[in-house]
Amino acid sequence: MPEMTLLGWFHTVLGSLALLTGFYTVYKYRIISLLETSGKYYIYITFLVAASALGIYNQGGFGVAHILAVLTLVALCGGIIMEKTNLFGFLSKYFQAIGYTSTLLFHMIPAITDFLRRLPVGDPFIDSFEDPLLANFHLAFLLTYLIGIILQMYWLKKSG
User: pLDDT by residue (tens digit) across 99-151?
Assistant: First the structure.
């Protein structure tokens, strides 16, 4: 595993802060929104994390993590557009929730992958992207995301 660069550390620290802020915001407000201070922080920090990910190339070129960074930026833009313009009327709040909440999934996939490939130092949990442990984490995150989206849709419908 290559050494972490200064950009890598910046990205990792901000990514951890984004995850904490994002999960706190969803827990407290049930959705991520620019109307809440923690939601605003989450969106800004997530933008910086995704943008910084595009500059990290110590794994051999443009890869899955870069694609997730692009998807994150697209989801952020989509969420902001839905929140600010109400482009699709009453459906906009649902698309906003899907966009912003998707960024949490996009954070978690490379975060757990990097964690399992780096730690413990000298004897990491996994040594390849095909490891079943990694696949199980990714599946668990996907299922958690889907359950979270369903709960958010229910809450949004219920709240009118």
Answer: 999 999 999 999 999 899 988 988 999 999 899 999 999 999 999 999 999 99
What are the sequence ranges of the domains in the chain? Answer: 6-159
Contacts of 96 by beta carbon, 8 Å cutoff, 6+ apart? 31, 33, 79, 82, 83
DSSP string, 96-138: HHHHHHHHHHHHHHHHHHHHHHH-STTS-S-SSTT-HHHHHHH
Separation of alpha carbons 76 and 48, rounded Å: 11
Whether pTM exceeds 0.85? yes
CB 45 within 8 A of CB 20: no
Q: What is the pLDDT of residues 43-55, one digit of tens each?
A: 999 999 999 999 8
Q: Tell me the three state secondary structure of residue 38.
A: helix
